[in-house]
Amino acid sequence: MPDVTKHGADPEVTRTILQYLYARPSAAETIRRALEYQAQGHEGFRWQHVRVMPKALTQLVLDGLIDRLDTPGAWYSVTNPLEAMEAVSRFFNEQADIRRERGHIGSSQLPPLPVGVPATLFDSVLGYADVKRQLFLALGTPTPTHVLIHGKPGTGKTLFMEAIGKLPGALFRHADTVTKSGLRRVVTQDRPRYLILDELDKMSLEQDTILLELMDGIVSAMNYNESYSEAIDMRVFAAANDIRHLRPELRSRFLKIPIRDYSPEEFIAIATSYLVKNGVDARIAELVAEGVSHKSRDLRDAIRIAKMARTEEDADFLVRTLGQEAQV
Ligand SMILES: Nc1ncnc2c1ncn2[C@@H]1O[C@H](COP(=O)(O)OP(=O)(O)OP(=O)(O)O)[C@@H](O)[C@H]1O
Ligand SMILES: [Mg+2]
Questions:
Q1: Could you give the strand order of the β-sheet that contains 194-198, starting from the edge strand earlier in sequence?
Q2: Domain at 129-258: CATH code
Q3: Which atom of ligand 1 is nearest to 152's Cα?
Q4: Which of 103, 158, 292, 323 is surrounded by the fewest CB atoms within 10 Å?
Q5: Whose CA is nearest to atom 26 of ligand 1?
Q6: Which ligand 1 atom is the nearest neighbour of the CA of 127?
Q7: Whose CA is nearest to atom 18 of ligand 1?
């Protein structure tokens, strides 16, 4: 019989939270304050109690660290308090150890994040905590891990690529504009640390062979009629809708991350937050997000409708007619 009286923290959940804190160290202090406040006998907390902006709490809800309580006003509670407590305490202990070893105080930069990669790198992308975690881990490997994100249109893939494109030493290209010789030249001359290829499925088959070589860490070139090759240290990050038509040998060189569909609840949270952040009236934003969540669940549809609607009735009408073109 399972022992229900000795209910300890689930180590797997603790580990997941800990990994999250490595990627977003600022969340550790928020969770610590929230737990402290709840430990005083409160069922939940508000943003004032943890001293962060409400937006940061929305992000933590989306990432599954805290829940929004079903009470009037914006009250929250820590989702897995036992595990969170364990993770936060280990996090701060490890941080103290690292500082001691380094012999200085004050740095909050933790080892799992590679040099030059800020914890806020993917903050422009809402949700997708597991994709972010995989990307951070891939960015931190000692030898290159190449990553290919794939999924339906309008799911934030380009947003992920643009975020990586902001890292020092990154080179961003639309794959359909890339040529073999152009890529060889730029890699030889500029030595990018990250090569970002959006829409990899649009790259022509004649051009993609160079990638195999680059991904294996080699670039070859001609010099005074003599060919030579050099070792390079470059990571490729790519995005695509459909990866079935890529060469198998190209596909196999990537860590493939599928972007799964949003649940209706996730879609509503993400679309509402996106629209409000972009100046759409909150009531219209909610109406559109809710309506589109029952239909295409494509953020671009929500953005388009919000752009067109001048009143709540317009929004309602546009949501109702959404998708009718498919039945023509
Ligand atoms: N998770 C998200 N967080 C914030 N914005 C998002 C998210 N997903 C999509 N968007 C927004 O929706 C629009 C479309 O996103 P994006 O261009 O990244 O999609 P995509 O997956 O690259 O689509 P495609 O496959 O058609 O290229 C953009 O305006 C983007 O800012
Ligand atoms: Mg795109």
A1: 170-174, 194-198, 235-240, 147-150, 255-258
A2: 3.40.50.300
A3: 25
A4: 103
A5: 153
A6: 1
A7: 156
> Which CATH number describes the domain made up of 11-102?
1.10.10
What tens-digit pLDDT sequence spans the chain (328 residues)?
Answer: 444 444 688 999 999 999 888 888 789 989 999 999 999 899 999 998 998 888 889 999 999 999 999 988 889 999 999 999 999 988 888 777 766 655 444 444 444 567 678 889 999 898 898 899 999 999 988 889 999 999 998 899 999 999 999 998 999 999 999 998 899 989 988 889 999 999 999 998 888 889 999 999 988 876 666 677 888 889 999 999 999 999 999 999 999 999 988 889 889 989 999 999 999 999 999 999 999 999 999 999 999 999 999 999 999 999 999 987 654 4
The predicted model scores a pTM of 0.66
- Identify which of 158, 196, 301 to mutate to test ligand 1's pocket (most ligand atoms within 8 A of the CB): 158
Q: Where are the domains of the chain?
A: 11-102, 129-258, 264-322
Residue 45: strand pairing partners: 76
| CB-CB contact of 23 with 132 (8 Å) | yes
Cα 103 to the chain's mean position, in Å?
Answer: 33
Judged by its nearest atom, the ligand closest to the C-alpha of residue 154 is 1
275: left (phi over 0), alpha (psi -120 to 50) or beta: alpha
